[in-house]
Amino acid sequence: MALAAQFDQHVRQVAGDVGQVGDMRLFLMAGLLLADENADLKSNVQLEPTANDAAVVEALNAAAERIEKLAAGL
Question: Is pTM, for the whole model, over 0.70?
Fold first, then answer.
C-alpha cells in the first residue's frame, strides 16, 4: 500500500509538472523517478550487512526489482 501511495504521488507530481500526456507516459515518468530515487539511495547508503541487516537489504533489493519491472513494463 505504501509503494502504491508513493507511486500515485509521483504520478500526480508528473501530471502537475507536464500536464496530461497520457497514462502510459505518466506511469513511465513516475516509475523512472522512483527508480532514480532508488538508485540515489543505493549509492548513498553503504551497508555492511549483519545478521539483522540482511533482511533489510533483501527487502530493499526486492522493492528495487519490482520498481524496475514496473518501469520496464511501461
Answer: no
